[in-house]
Fold this protein.
Amino acid sequence: MSEERCRDASQPVRALGLLSGGLDSTLAVRVLQDQGVEVACVNFHTGFCIQSHTGAIRNPKKGEEPARHDALHAARSLGVKLHMVDISEDYVRIVTNPKHGYGKNLNPCLDCKIFMVKKAWELKEKLGFDFIFTGEVMGQRPMSQRKDTFPVIDRDAGVKGWLLRPLSAQYMPETEPEKRGWVDREKLKNFTGRSRKPQMALAQEMKLTDYPTPAGGCCFLTDENYARKLQDLWSHRETKKYSMEDIVLLKAGRHIRPGSDFKLIIGRDETENNFLSGFKAGRLTIRAENLPGPFTLLEGNPDQDGLKLACSIAARYGKGKNHQEVTMVVTGKDGSQRFTITPMAAHKVLKEWHV
């Protein structure tokens, strides 16, 4: 264990932090920097980050700034090195089989935090830092940030005594960095609860103004609509597996399942149409002939009646929705088929079809 190694007292204390770019993790960095600790950070990509999906789907309009990555932005502002680590492949087992279960939706928050802390510890060992820290605040989140779950995280991640939480440290047992005098416990904070007012006051005191809106969600697995789509995917595949392509597509378009053997993903605007068009491989596509309308992906293996039904639904969302007849083109690896159909009336697109 690295805590047994002798550190050179002539060198600055070095800490590795988990940085989301939100207010709490940003403040945790500054609290340690103000004590002279040399800080670097790590940001983990799980595949479910809201920013990553939104940035991939929505290109900026003319004159708009590109969507920023909060962790990168915060790291630049704080003057710290940021290690970007993709853990999405290993993260599959955390999502599909969490030891500590799910939260309100499909969010394995406690297992997620344990996993990330483990990964941070591995990186800390590799790079020779003295300890790790997070921006967690006791009582802020119902599953992973409680007085009784913090020790579980430390124990299961194998970092007991070496994970510092600067924003709530005064409510917690002393960590090794405090015991060894590497950080001054009196200068750490005693924040608790869900209110962000103390953090916002500290940010003002530190002259930190450019941070994301506090309490904003950062993970799609906490989102009820997204979780429902993922559960639907698992149910119809009869296996708890997913690919990175799957989880990105769950964010884009209207998802409509009119039959157990197929599902439609219908673009809601031009940017989504363009995005969905990049996922044709292995799927059928549907577009209206000679009429503006959405780009539609079809997943599954419907029969001819199912294809006609799919075309009728897709036509409902195009410019020909009030026409008596519309010709829809279904394209796949074996070529194209044309169906002349009547667009489905809005009230006939059954509520239970919407995933």
